[in-house]
Design goal:
With 136 residues, the chain is α+β, with helices and mostly antiparallel strands. Helix content is 32%, strand content 29%. The chain has a single domain (4-135), classed as Heat Shock Protein 90. The protein has helices spanning 16-30, 36-56, 96-103, and strands spanning 4-10, 61-68, 71-78, 104-112, 115-122. It has a five-stranded antiparallel beta sheet with strand order 1-2-3-5-4. The protein binds adenosine-5'-triphosphate (ATP) and magnesium ion. The site of magnesium ion has 5 residues, from helix 2. This is ATP-binding protein. Keywords: ATP-binding, Kinase, Nucleotide-binding, Serine/threonine-protein kinase, Transferase. It holds the Pfam family HATPase_c_2. One of its GO terms (molecular function) is ATP binding.
C-alpha cells in the first residue's frame, strides 16, 4: 500500500494552531480524507499538539503527515528535548494530552534532531481501506 507523506513548517504565533489545522486538513482533503467526524477529531489533535509545541516547546515547529490507507499518523516536532507528560488537570490546564489520548489510537514521543517529535496515530479512517484505493 502506498504511503502518502507531507511535511511543512508552522509559522510561530497566535495563529499557529489555526494555520496548522487548515494545512493538515487541506493536505488530507486532497488525498481524499474528508470524513467530517474523523477530521473534527483530527483538528482537535492538531490544535493541542501545535499549541503545546508553541507554548511549552522551543525553536521551529514542523508538522508531518503520513497516510497509509486507513492509518494516518500526525507528527509535531519542536526544538526542545523536554518530553511532554500528561499531568493532573487543574485550573490552568493539563487537558491537552488527555484529549490527544482520547482521540487517537496511541501517541508517543521520539527524539528528533536535538529536540523531539510527538507522533499521534489517529483513529482508523472509517472507509475500510481508506480513501482512493481504486487509484493506488
Ligand atoms: N511540546 C512540548 N514541549 C515540552 N513540554 C511539553 C510539550 N507539550 C506538553 N508539554 C508538557 O506536558 C504538560 C501537559 O500538556 P497538556 O497539553 O496536557 O497540558 P497544558 O498544555 O499544560 O494545558 P492545556 O493543554 O489544557 O491548555 C504541559 O504542562 C507541559 O509541561
Ligand atoms: Mg496543552
Amino acid at each position: 500500500m502506498t504511503t502518502l507523506t507531507a511535511q511543512f513548517d508552522v509559522p510561530i504565533g497566535v495563529d499557529s494552531p489555526r494555520t496548522s489545522r487548515k494545512a493538515v486538513l487541506a493536505v488530507l482533503g486532497v488525498w481524499g480524507y474528508v470524513d467530517e467526524a474523523w477530521t473534527d477529531d483530527l483538528s482537535v489533535v492538531v490544535s493541542e499538539l501545535v499549541t503545546n509545541a508553541v507554548q511549552h516547546g522551543a525553536g521551529s515547529v514542523v508538522i508531518g503527515v503520513e497516510a497509509n490507507g486507513p492509518q494516518v499518523v500526525l507528527s509535531v516536532a519542536d526544538g526542545s528535548a523536554v518530553v511532554p507528560r500528561r499531568r493532573e488537570p487543574d485550573g490552568r490546564g493539563g487537558r491537552g494530552l488527555l484529549l490527544v489520548e482520547a482521540l487517537t489510537r496511541r501517541w508517543h514521543v521520539e527524539e528528533h534532531e536535538g529536540g523531539k517529535r510527538v507522533r499521534a496515530e489517529l483513529r482508523l479512517y472509517p472507509d475500510g481501506d481508506g480513501p482512493g484505493r481504486e487509484d493506488q
